[in-house]
């Protein structure tokens, strides 16, 4: 799997820390980042911070804001309305600082932060790299209103609609089939 797809998987997992899949009517989903310790564990699991790094409630607020605003910018996201396009994300970017490191064969963006904020800034860097490499369209939101799971589209055209054809895709196609046959 290429580096871009690994980065996409990390971001999809980040977006899914707020699980919007509904289990019953009126279910608002499940927030997995309720405390700074939860964010610490998530960042550590994805190797975005070191064990000695500290994650504060302020860092958690930034991470939740980043998750909400960046999720709105997923290409096929019809569930979250972004009135100002990328402007909210761009405004949020003012809270992050980066340096550029050059090598013989590349240049890399490096966060100029410490502790947990460094991990959140690394997520921002992933978004930047995916946009720059024209891979952002590969991150998608499941079109099923009761799912909304964020997934990485591995299809050739990059136009996947459902997180999995076995569940959400199958349900949607069966619903459309029943609707067509009901009219006959």
From TrEMBL:
Annotated InterPro entries: ABATE, ABATE_dom_sf, Znf_CGNR
One Pfam family assigned to this protein is ABATE
Q: Where is the Zinc finger CGNR domain?
A: 138-180
- Protein's UniProt name: CGNR zinc finger domain-containing protein
């Amino acid at each position: 799997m290429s580096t871009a797809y690994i980065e996409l998987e990390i971001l999809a997992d980040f977006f899914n820390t707020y699980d919007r899949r509904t289990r019953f009517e009126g279910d608002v989903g499940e927030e997995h980042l309720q405390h700074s310790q939860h964010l610490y564990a998530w960042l550590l699991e994805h190797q975005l911070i070191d064990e000695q790094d500290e994650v504060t409630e302020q860092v958690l607020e930034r991470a939740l804001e980043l998750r909400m605003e960046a999720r709105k910018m997923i290409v096929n996201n019809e569930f979250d309305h972004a009135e100002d396009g990328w402007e909210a994300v761009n405004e949020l970017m003012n809270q992050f600082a980066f340096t550029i490191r050059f090598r013989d064969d590349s240049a890399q963006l490096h966060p100029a932060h410490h502790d947990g904020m460094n991990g959140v800034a690394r997520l921002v860097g992933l978004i930047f790299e995916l946009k720059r490499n024209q891979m952002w369209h590969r991150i998608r939101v499941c079109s099923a209103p009761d799912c909304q799971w964020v997934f990485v589209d591995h299809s050739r055209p990059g136009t996947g609609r459902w997180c999995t054809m076995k569940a959400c895709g199958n349900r949607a196609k069966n619903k459309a089939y029943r609707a067509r046959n009901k009219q006959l």
